[in-house]
Amino acid sequence: xxxxxxxxxxxxxxxxxxxxxxxxxxxxxxxxxxxxxxxxxxxxxxxxxxxxxxxxxxxxxxxxxxxxxxxxxxxxxxxxxxxxxxxxxxxxxxxxxxxxxxxxxxxxxxxxxxx
Length: 115
Hints:
Blueprint: H1 3-6, H2 10-16, H3 19-31, H4 36-40, H5 47-59, E1 63-68, E2 71-76, H6 78-114
């Protein structure tokens, strides 16, 4: 694996890979924080499913929770989100370089076939 890939946290990207969890992160970023109940009211999944998704996000550090009565309030961890964004940028740059190389190879093959 390349050095760009070595810095990627697979557990983090597995957590972000789920569309429901990405939507939850969006909702938390907009609202500032939320509970499983408040998030569940905005998502097409049960409160229990929301709680399980929050556990995954908490495990990889994308959200932090604090007790709030009988529930927990969740906030996005800005440092961990910044780390995820930096990883995405690194991976994106590596793929851009690979795609440019593939394009150059394809163009060279095409020129060879035209001669």
